[in-house]
């Protein structure tokens, strides 16, 4: 491996390199918000599509960069995104539209996943002093509480139709709840309000302990309306982009990271063993000893379903490995950290133009030249480097 990714200066330069790939071309000075769709070389191939998650992730990225580099240009760029969340994505019913196009709302469904990122973006923006961001933290939490929270299940519903908030989709999923746990932790770290930490703990216990129990301690993705495991969901569509069938090792790693962030603030004896189990299983099941990298999904019987390599999986794996290495003192986690970074540095990191490629086949080849389709923004690798810096310090 050419670069030493245990070096904080290398990590900071990597964050700056990611930001510089997008900035300032991503700032939409005409319509507000950001331009998200970039090719590998950094040219824009779609100026119109504005995805809620992409908007929020740009706010996150700029807030992190403003904090790390004490940069007012990045702070203003984060504020630019917060303003567009309120003026562009937010609709008359209080919710935030999923996708905007040149002529307004293209997909108006209210999704818990998207609202999780609103809360995360607001929390990070408030941390660097963006005006109105802390108010948005409270508003986003209240909206989630009123519209998506299911008290009996102690989890959030996934999707609700725009308008009167009555048409709740039957699907339930862990992914939105995982990102809501992430957002709650960020909101707590910014505001120190206990309600955010309480909710993060509840979500983690429900997903990683109670619902994991019937799945050999692992995280299943899909559930019925009553939060029963839906073992057949999308079985005939294992490469579904948003809701693939099977276990996702990348989410195991992501939860491992979140559990140890949670442990810093509200330690409980189950958190470290659960984090270690999830991470260890993810690498044991998905790491490809022949080609390197991690397979994307595997079936309940362990059969690999999707051999593609996704950028976010490697990013979350290096973050979780570093957090586990520092927390446990076990060198094997640093070994995984180095192995995962070696693959990412060789195959995902674009050392010419900057940022990461999104998805590769098993042999490490790209499918197209679209580096950042709607919502990517390299929030996963940037956020991973940020978390690694936090634990190294």
Please, could you describe this protein's structure?
The protein is mostly helical and 393 residues long. Helix content is 51%, strand content 10%. It is built from twelve helices and 16 strands. The protein has helices spanning 8-22, 52-69, 72-89, 112-127, 133-147, 174-191, 194-210, 249-265, 271-286, 311-328, 331-348, 379-392, and strands at residues 37-39, 44-46, 50-51, 99-101, 104-107, 110-111, 149-150, 155-156, 159-160, 172-173, 222-223, 297-298, 304-306, 309-310, 359-360, 370-372. A three-stranded antiparallel β-sheet has the order 2-1-16, with no helix packed on it. A hairpin with a 4-residue loop joins strand 1 and strand 2 (44-46). The longest helix is centred in the first third of the chain and has 18 residues, at 52-69. The protein is globular and about 50 Å long. The mean pLDDT is 97.
Question: Notable features of this structure?
Answer:
three-stranded antiparallel β-sheet, mainly alpha, 393 residues, globular, 51% helix
From the N-terminal CA to the C-terminal CA, the straight-line distance is 23 Å
What is the element string, with H for helices and E for strands? HEEEHHEEEHHEEEEHHEHHEEEHHEEH
> Could you give the count of β-strands?
16
Largest sheet: spatial strand order: 2-1-16
- Main beta-sheet annotation: 3 strands, antiparallel
Low-confidence stretches: none
Mean pLDDT, rounded to whole units? 97
Strand content: 5-15%
Give the class from helix and strand content and strand pairing: mainly alpha
Give the fraction of residues assigned to helices.
40-55%
Overall 3D shape: globular
Supply Rg.
19 Å
Our count of helices gives: 12
